[in-house]
Amino acid sequence: QVQLVESGGGLVQAGGSLRLSCAASGSIFRINAMGWYRQAPGNQRELVASIPTGGRTYYADSVKGRFTISRDYAKNTLYLQMNSLKPEDTAVYYCNVIGLTTTETTRASFNSWGQGTQVTVSS
Questions:
Q1: DSSP readout, the chain?
Q2: pLDDT given for residue 84 in this prediction
Q3: pLDDT at 105
């Protein structure tokens, strides 16, 4: 089983910055991809940014040039640096991790979600 613990959300004025963190723990054999999603009230959950292992990062058009996703491979930790925040960035942000777990005898795929962290940007 894989657990994700998020931190770093909060209230900030427009133009400000926040940094989100997501630490993955458990019987992780391999992480294939990590990403950040967000969901605003009344909206569907949307992909904000992702970083596959050995692949190219992806950013939603709405955050390009303002957000930066990064990983600490040794710590299985994901980050999202958010600069020049806008009121429309207000949402609950969720961490997502996809990979393989391992036990003594088996390996199984997993797709885990964090508990979500609120980001509120005031105008």
A1: -EEEEEE--EEEETT--EEEEEEEEESEEEEEEEEEEEE-TTS--EEEEEEETTS--EE-TTTTTTEEEEEETTTTEEEEEE-S--GGG-EEEEEEEEEEEE-SS-EEEEEEE---EEEEEE-
A2: 98
A3: 83
